[in-house]
Amino acid sequence: MRVRPSREEDRSAHLRRCVGGTENPRGQRLYANDPVQDLVGVDPDMLVIINASPYFWGKGDVRFGLVADIAKRIGCPVVSGYQVGGNDDLIFDGRSFAVNERGDCIAAARPFVEEELLFDTEGAGSVDYPHDTDRDSELYDTLVLGTRDYLAKTGYTKAVIAESGGIDSALVTSIAADAIGAENVTAIGMPSPFSSSGSVNDARNLCRNLGVDFRVVSIGPLYDVFGGSVNELIGWHGAEAFGADVTKRTCRRVSGPRSSWRIPIGIMPSCSRPKQVELAVGYCTLYGDMVGGLAVISDVYKTTFIVRPGT
């Protein structure tokens, strides 16, 4: 965001970092020093705030309320610029904006994209601030941005996903396709003795609809060898729960080499699928669900993206 005063005369502009973080959303002071209070009575022409503010749902409205209150307290326009992009498990949604001395929004950037705005701090008009309105849509955009930036910043151009036909892998596949393009995503179906034909068909239909390359690799022979060796050691044969656990680990043995295959335009990382509920109860499989270069939905609860009847 670039700021240019409407007149070329001397101006008094003050720069502050993370000013909005001196109070919580309830207006309670977090620190002994209040940098905003230091500006009361100074009569600045403008305050510029720069902030690397990680995203959570509702953060945009919290920021706007704090900055609008600051503008009213010190009686001048406030320009608040925020970082945008992904950095491992942190997502920065951007959504930079400016308000006049009355706290009205006079410029606003869209969330989750880089934008450059030109505006007049003394203009009489106002614009709509991009409030937090559609929770599911925003969270999806957050995951797409985080996935795209993770891959770009680590030098990857393609991704591999173990596609089971279930909702978890379906969501991860969709996110990856939107993040780097469907042509850069490979989904691998690995049916086992515990897989239904419907699972494979669902996975194939999903990938066809998304334009993702879908391949099927049978893990039956590997499962038999692996399971037979384990059975000799601990006698697990016939235990369905343990057999399903072996299946997940076998799948990772197949998808792992594919994800490390070097091709001219980059490396193909594997995207894993454990989510918040599984991590909390210890349900996801060590060396199974947890294997991958990026756990795309690890901070998402199942109830957030599960499809409900009538929706």
Description:
The chain is of the alpha/beta class. The longest helix is centred in the C-terminal third of the chain and has 20 residues. The two termini are 38 Å apart. The N terminus is likely disordered.
Show the helix and strand layout.
Layout: E1 13-17, H1 35-39, E2 46-51, H2 59-74, E3 78-82, E4 84-87, E5 90-93, E6 97-99, E7 105-108, H3 135-153, E8 159-162, H4 167-180, E9 185-189, H5 197-210, E10 213-216, H6 220-234, H7 240-259, E11 262-263, E12 266-267, E13 271-272, H8 276-281, E14 294-295, H9 302-305
Helix pairs in contact: 3-4, 4-5, 6-7
Biggest sheet, in brief?
Answer: 5 strands, mixed
CATH class of the largest domain, named Alpha Beta
Q: What is the CATH topology descriptor of the largest domain?
A: Rossmann fold
| Mean pLDDT score | 75
Identify the CATH homologous superfamily of the largest domain: HUPs
Question: How many distinct helices?
Answer: 9
Question: What is the N-to-C succession of helices and strands?
Answer: EHEHEEEEEHEHEHEHHEEEHEH
Radius of gyration: 25 Å
Strand order of the largest sheet: 1-2-3-6-7
Overall form: elongated
